[in-house]
């Protein structure tokens, strides 16, 4: 079952269960799928589907950070619930230790910054946080 099929199935189930928050989150994802189809006249690849979720996860994290700054616990709770729904659809991201091991094993420390970033973003795209990868590469190259 593709990610899009899973989203459609879960959206229908959320509507039946009257889970409005989950239905709303999945409706936004479905809208992004449809917009992509209209704009590009083709279906999304699996990587592009994952990027839709990662983009929305990033938006929710930013909303949580902002809500913490203005001390809005209601918004924090709502966005954390949305975040949990979105994270259920993406594969587990690599943690810092795993990223460091991967980069060290592939000799990134001997590459230029441009080559290291190009290589690692191609390989780790959708598997690790880009900001984390960038930070670790810069640390490895500074040594």
From TrEMBL:
<dbReference type="GO" id="GO:0016884">
    <property type="term" value="F:carbon-nitrogen ligase activity, with glutamine as amido-N-donor"/>
</dbReference>
<protein>
    <submittedName>
        <fullName>Uncharacterized protein</fullName>
    </submittedName>
</protein>
<dbReference type="InterPro" id="IPR019004">
    <property type="entry name" value="YqeY/Aim41"/>
</dbReference>
<dbReference type="Pfam" id="PF09424">
    <property type="entry name" value="YqeY"/>
</dbReference>
<dbReference type="InterPro" id="IPR003789">
    <property type="entry name" value="Asn/Gln_tRNA_amidoTrase-B-like"/>
</dbReference>
<dbReference type="InterPro" id="IPR042184">
    <property type="entry name" value="YqeY/Aim41_N"/>
</dbReference>
């Amino acid at each position: 079952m593709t990610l899009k099929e899973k989203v459609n199935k879960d959206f229908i189930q959320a509507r039946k269960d009257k889970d409005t928050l989950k239905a709303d989150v999945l409706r936004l994802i479905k809208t992004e799928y449809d917009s992509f189809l209209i704009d590009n006249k083709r279906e999304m690849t699996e990587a592009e589907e994952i990027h839709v979720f990662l983009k929305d996860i990033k938006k929710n994290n930013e909303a949580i950070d902002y809500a913490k700054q203005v001390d809005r616990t209601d918004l924090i709770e709502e966005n954390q619930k949305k975040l949990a729904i979105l994270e259920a659809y993406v594969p587990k991201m690599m943690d810092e230790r795993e990223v460091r091991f991967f980069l060290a094993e592939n000799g990134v420390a001997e590459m230029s910054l441009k080559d290291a970033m190009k290589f690692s973003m191609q390989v780790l795209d959708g598997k690790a946080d880009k900001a984390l990868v960038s930070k670790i590469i810069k640390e490895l190259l500074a040594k």
